[in-house]
Amino acid sequence: MNFTRKDFPQDFLFGAATAAYQIEGHQFGGAGPTHWDTFAATPGNVVRGEDGARACDHYHRFAEDLDLLRDAGMDAYRFSTSWARVMPDGRHVNVEGLDFYDRLVDAMLERGLKPFQTLYHWELPSALADKGGWTNRDTCSAFADFTDVITDRIGDRVHAIATINEPWCVAFLSHFLGHHAPGLRDIRATARAMHHINLAHGMAMTRLRCKGINNCGVVLNFDHTDPLDDSAGAASAAQTWDAIMNRWFVEAVTKGTYPAEALAGFAAHMPDSWQDDMAEISQKIDFMGVNYYTRHHVTEDKSQPWPHLASQEGPGAKTQMGWEIYPDGLRSFLTRLATDYVGDLPLYVTENGMAWDDRVENGAVYDPERMQFVSDHITATKRAIDQGANVQGFFYWSLLDNYEWAFGYEKRFGMVHVDFDTLKRVPKASYHALKSAIAR
Ligand code: IFM
User: Ligand 1, atom 10: nearest CA belongs to which residue?
Assistant: First the structure.
């Protein structure tokens, strides 16, 4: 790797991230059904119809997984707490679920890892999905109730709490593009979900503040967007895409507004009196999490209804996901956020990583592509800090190979290889390289 810990400010945190449904094993510990279980059980949605029933069995193997983080010299662990595990029907508490997160957080602290909790990383309880999920405003208050329940149990020991992971994926990817649960392709449902997921963030923040909890924020995903060519149509399509994907959430949370280019399509479908929610949505946060993976080239497509655009991957080298590797996009977002939206508010790179078709050979995994990727993105983060962005940490996605949503177990993002038959963990070469780079 082309950096060491000494290149970063003294308190800069290095860590890795995961999410509950992707690793825990949802058939254990009394967790309730989620909309991802039903999405996966519907033919055509997920590669081989795979779901998170067993995943990495982290539910039983979390001690071994946390040892891996500690042994790598990591400072922090970003994890999520499953709503459907804690409240299987979205309303009533499953004590076994709370006990699990209690043990998990204590085990992090025993290993000197700072717990970075995410409240919602996508496993919506089916009982709430049945009532319209994120298209229904009531889901926001149910989420605030879940926030109370889980915070009353572990809020005294977590270092930081993010409300929602990647609201764009929860809303647009899942209700407009149909790639994630609930798999809708409906602009009205999308507009409602785009607003309600922000409101859920705001209501959860209100509950956290009522309890006097600090170090709370939200995790947004950003996609570097360039026009495909020099035409005016491509320029305007890129602006529209940037508004839907990158600006909708950050503008709402930091300024209490939605970008005009996105409202041009969504306004007619928004819930009544949505403007009245913007103050709660834009209340003060303590940090912003930034998830960054790739860039897109965008062009106009007038043959399609709004947003009249088509997007394609940029020309550079691609990961196993087919995503272009473009490290400077991370520098660019971190500095853009500091300049245009958050000023000196602490930023964390809460996800960055790549999938590759990794194989175990002679008991080891050699992944030079990932070593380069991580090195280049952490160096891009350093450049953003040098240019004035207040970035305080970097979390690799992901600690383990895991359930990659609609791609099932096919795409391997982990720094640790998981054999999904035996569940054996094998740290990859990138794990060892990062460990050397961040050794104190
Ligand atoms: O696996 C996902 C994660 O759940 C959210 N951010 C992107 C990752 C890679 O697709």
Answer: 404
What's the CATH class of domain 5-437? alpha beta
Provide residues with CB under 6 Å of ligand 1.
Answer: 19, 22, 166, 291, 351, 397, 404, 413
Is 166 tagged catalytic? yes
Q: What angle do helix axes 95-110 and 58-71 make, rounded to 10 degrees?
A: 20
Q: How many whole angstroms from 231 Cα to the centroid of ligand 1?
A: 33
Q: Report, as ranges of residue numbers, the positions in the chain whose pLDDT lies below 70.
A: none
Q: What is the pLDDT of residue 440?
A: 78
Catalytic residue of the set 166, 251, 261, 324: 166
The domain limits of the chain are: 5-437
* Residue 369, amino acid: E
pLDDT of amino acid 200: 99
How far apart (Å, rounded) are the C-alpha atoms in residues 155 and 300?
Answer: 47
Q: Is 361 a catalytic residue?
A: no
CA of 55 relative to ligand 1 center, distance in Å: 15
Cα 281 to middle of ligand 1, angstroms:
24
Query: Which tokens hold the place of 318?
Result: 């691609």
User: In Å, how far from its chain's centre is CA 287?
Assistant: 15
Q: What is the pTM of this model?
A: 0.98
Half-sphere exposure of residue 172: CA atoms within 13 angstroms, side-chain side: 18
Predicted local distance difference test score (pLDDT) of residue 269: 98
Q: Is the bond preceding residue 182 a cis peptide, omega within 30 degrees?
A: yes
With CA atoms as reference, report the closest residue to 415 among 72, 78, 19.
72
Task: Quote the distance between the C-alpha of residue 160 and its chain's center.
Answer: 15
